[in-house]
Write a structure and sequence with these properties.
By secondary structure, this protein is mainly beta. The protein has a single domain (about 5-190), classed as Beta Barrel (Porin), CATH 2.40.160. The protein is about 5% helix and about 65% strand. A 9-stranded antiparallel beta sheet has the order 1-2-3-4-5-6-7-8-9, with no helix packed on it. Strand 4 (about 55-70) and strand 5 form a beta hairpin. About 20% of the residues are buried.
Amino acid sequence: MIVIFILMLGSLGYAQKRGSQELGGGISFWSQTDKDTSETSLNLDGIWGYYVTPDFIFEFEPRLSLHFAESKFDLTGLAIVGLAKRLMDLSNLDQNTGSQWARKYERSTAGIFGSVSGGLWAERSNNIHDERIYIGPALGAGVSTRSMLGSLTVLRVKFQYLYLMPTPPVHENPWSMFTISVGFSVISKL
């Protein structure tokens, strides 16, 4: 079972202008019990975006995962930096210029963004006698939607493929993750 709690941060400002920044995050939690074992995981996600132009966003996304299982505690992290480009502005689909203007004035516009990113993953070894932290490179590509809900709040839905490169002895082979995240963020002006 996954429960998503959304954290919101913000200050006064206006949306999607050059120099605006986007702040947000989320929490997800899951717990699983099988016969004699139980596992619990807590994931903390963050987002910081800087609008270089209204169509290009520089993004930083840190993720931290705490995993509890029996007498074991694991801590993993992922930090990726990327560039997102607006592929489609959905506010212009309506041909009625009056309603286009009203949506932009109310800042209830929506857009589809494509992104590429790169960063680092970090994981502590599962071996009890080895407490070193191993770090490896990560690459990502994704598609996301951003829908303005008023003048400051953004509803974000992101589909992202992450390719994590190996770092022996923790991971001998590369592995990948497909993530779907839903969250809120807030726009503020620097």
